[in-house]
What does this fold into?
Amino acid sequence: MKKRYPITAVILFALTMQGCATNKLTGASQLSLVSERELQSLAATQYKEFIKTHELVSSTKDSRGLLVQKTGKKIAAAVDKYFTDKKNKSALNGFNWEYNLVKDSAINAWCMPGGKIVVYTGMLPYTINENALAIVIGHEVSHALLQHGNKRMSESIVQELGGIALSSALSKNPTQTRNLFMQAYGVGSEVGFMLPFSRKQELEADRFGLIWAAIAGYDPNEAIHFWERMQKMGGQRTPEFLSTHPSDATRIEKIKTYLPEALTYKK
Ligand SMILES: [Zn+2]
It folds into this structure.
């Protein structure tokens, strides 16, 4: 049996190591046993590996690949503008944006630390248009900026490896540590886009995602239509899928309350 460490150990470890960091986007203090810089460096390696071992849709010869590049760049520019306007450009130190569309039927998209974005072709039947694609990319970029994956990675390292530094984890258990990282960012999951984080984190990512879309000149209202399409698809998915993410109806209601804030950022 593989040894697993109790979740309370995470808290104890955090208290001992004072493993808390202030989030650059919200200013809130959050559990962080792993430095974001270390995660960015691991992300750069893992992203390169992922890109090498998956079939990409060309961003020069295929309009779908081109659209993901274009939309990703616009969202990245919006995030840049937001932090520049707030005189907090250093929040994006270590960001080196990349955008790729991967040939894979999974309904998935993710953004690793440092702005490493992947959209799966399985997502496209639900995004349909550029506005909705911007909503999805904006949502994933928000998870990265809010460091939701960092929290999950911190918890996994404590649970699976007993709370050691990332560098030690990588030298002692390289394969397991890399696997934990990939899980923490929803890579490889069939329905990764739908099953990633807690309800609270999902809604937080929705809220900021709408803001990036608005700054980039997209219509954040499209988020409602996008989630309605996802809701229709919900019935065809497994019950597990339905029970583990915020219900689409609740989500749509919440998004409606976030829209006025996002629209204040629209040019
Ligand atoms: Zn999410």
About this structure: The mean pLDDT is 86.
